[in-house]
Amino acid sequence: MKEDSGIPLFGTSGIRREVDRDFIQLAFQVGMAVGILYDNVIIGRDTRTTGSAIQHSVISGLLASGARCSDTGILPTPTLAFAAREFKAGVMITASHNPPNYNGIKLLNPDGSAFSPAQQKEIEDLIHGGALSIAPWNKIQDDKVYNTAVEKHVSRILTRFSGGFKLKVVVDAGCGAGFFITPHVLARLGCDVTTINCYPNGIFPHDVEPVEANLGDLMRAVIETKAALGIAHDGDADRMMAIDDRGRFISGDKMLAILSRAAGAKKIVTTIDASMSIDEMGFKVLRTRVGDPYVSEELKKGGEFGGEPSGAWVFPQVSFCPDGIFAAAQIAAIASENMLSILVDSIPAYPVIRGSFKLNALVMPDLEKELEATKPLTIDRTDGFKLNFNDGWLLVRPSGTEPKIRLSAEANTEARAHQIYENGVQAIRYFLQEESK
């Protein structure tokens, strides 16, 4: 099978698709392409039901190319990324926060960063060009088992914290890859840990994206156990979001501020959809396209901390992969010294509204033209288009992981945020009607 050269393989976070025959075949091709370019590779997966099938397809491709391959089994993406420093590249089989019928392939460098666009193009060129070749039979090796990745990641995290955290914590891993390591790390740091959904199950008990709407059980558990903190992960635990001691979901923008302060950061890197409040808090802020690979790439040029409001937090002292496990330890350290609810309430915030619509991204230029009638002061085209007003902004961009257009709005007041957001919704509804004709 030769992949259709007209179909791009990579989105903002690797390759993600609903699992079917073509994806299984593509996984083999990706393995061959990676193995041709990188001769010593480590591979792992999250808990999805299709993970083993996709992983073994990639492993077959790696081995067929003549590369060496070490298999970690199920583990979080940041744990694999930390282990990748001993290899030429890492391959993580995960669709992160996508529904369980999806799966994906993330390609990682030894420093934990995602493959750059240039590296991705090399992979695509090999696949699209039909340049995949099988190694001679006497050059093909067995795959190896690598079983120390979790231990090494845990040890690295524990060296950064003094421990002795005498606080109750509730962890909801969503039955994803963080089901063991996060409770283990927190217990080692002295926390009294209560777990929900901390067992491996590829049919997730709730939508695995760690947003407020999906975390009702965690919020209730924090209140019922009188915990100081609740922690939630997505499917591969590269994301971490938190619940405060009053059972309230902490917004991604406030998490960004809290973690930036804890890191002692002066320069932070975040995404174009992060709140304008972060610019008012004394940080030097650099903004990128939405997607943690863009944050990590910019952090390589300098900066003490980076992240995006979706819950992806990058700690350069560990790796350039978002690390939900390290972030869990960090927020626990903060909660051991301060009541999170007081800390959260001390951070300024503006109303933010986010949503998404199933709409073909080809209409983006027409959408922008339609919304120019709202008379923005400036238009930023870093990612989709962002209309900037004197009292807020509207961001319209195609999703890099799903066939959707995402809409975000922020303003000085709730009423104005809703007005800006509704302007975007009305324009999108017009094009939805046009598509349905």
Written overview of the protein:
With 437 residues, the chain is α/β, with parallel strands linked by helices. The mean pLDDT is 94. 33% of the residues lie in helices and 22% in strands.
Features:
437 residues; alpha/beta; Alpha-D-Glucose-1,6-Bisphosphate, Chain A, domain 3; TATA-Binding Protein; six-stranded mixed sheet; five-stranded antiparallel sheet; 13 helices; 19 strands; 33% helix; globular
CA-atom Rg in angstroms: 22 Å
Low-confidence stretches: none
Strand order of the largest sheet: 1-5-4-2-3-6
Assign the structural class, choosing from mainly alpha, mainly beta, alpha/beta, alpha+beta, or little secondary structure.
Answer: alpha/beta
Helix content: 25-40%
CATH architecture of the largest domain: 3-Layer(aba) Sandwich
CATH topology of the largest domain: Alpha-D-Glucose-1,6-Bisphosphate, Chain A, domain 3
In short:
The chain has helices at residues 21-37, 51-64, 77-83, 117-128, 149-158, 181-188, 216-225, 252-262, 292-299, 324-335, 340-345, 364-371, 414-436; strands at residues 15-18, 40-45, 68-74, 89-93, 102-108, 144-145, 168-172, 192-196, 229-233, 240-243, 267-271, 284-288, 305-308, 312-314, 352-357, 378-380, 385-389, 392-398, 405-411. The chain is an alpha/beta fold and 437 residues long. The chain folds into 3 domains: 15-146, Alpha-D-Glucose-1,6-Bisphosphate, subunit A, domain 3 (Alpha-D-Glucose-1,6-Bisphosphate, Chain A, domain 3), CATH 3.40.120.10; 163-345, Alpha-D-Glucose-1,6-Bisphosphate, Chain A, domain 3, CATH 3.40.120; 352-436, TATA-Binding Protein (2-Layer Sandwich), CATH 3.30.310.50.
